[in-house]
Amino acid sequence: QVQLVESGGGLVQAGGSLRLSCAASGIIFSITAMGWYRQAPGKEREFVAAISSRDNPRYADSVKGRFTISRDNAKNTLYLQMNNLKPEDTAMYYCAPTRIATLKPLGSWGQGTQVTVSS
Questions:
Q1: What's the rounded Cα separation, in Å, for the pair 102 and 25?
Q2: Distance (Å, whole) CA 97 – CA 34
Q3: Where are the beta strands (DSSP E) in the chain?
Q4: 85 contacts: CB under 8 Å, gap ≥ 6
Q5: Rounded to an integer, what distance in angstroms lies between the CA atom of residue 66 and that of residue 101?
């Protein structure tokens, strides 16, 4: 059974930084592409960033140059370093196994971690 536990969210002022973590179990993490997704109130969940099993990253245009996705296979943990945060980044952030060819999630979700950026 896949388990994903996101952490690291919080309240930050515009221009600030946060680092999200996602601890994964129940999957062979080292060979699994992983992604970050977010959902703002009243909006659909959207793709943020993904990383292949070979450490190749992909980003949504809205976060390119500000966010960095990384992984530590020894710790089965996915990260998202978020810099220069903007109020429009406010959302619940989720990690999930991801089909790297389509950037679509593969259906397992954690509880998410809330990111709130004040202007």
A1: 23
A2: 4
A3: 3-7, 10-13, 18-25, 34-39, 46-51, 57-59, 67-72, 77-82, 91-99, 104-105, 113-118
A4: 12, 14, 15, 16, 17, 18, 66, 115, 117
A5: 23
Provide the 8-state DSSP code for 30: G
- 49 vs 67: CA distance, rounded Å: 8
Q: 2, 96 in Cβ contact below 8 A?
A: no
Half-sphere exposure of 113 toward its Cβ, with a 13 Å CA cutoff?
19
Q: What is the pLDDT of residues 28-64, one digit of tens each?
A: 999 999 999 999 999 999 999 999 999 999 999 999 9
How far is the C-alpha of 58 from the C-alpha of 68, rounded, in Å?
9
CB–CB of 8/18 below 8 Å? yes
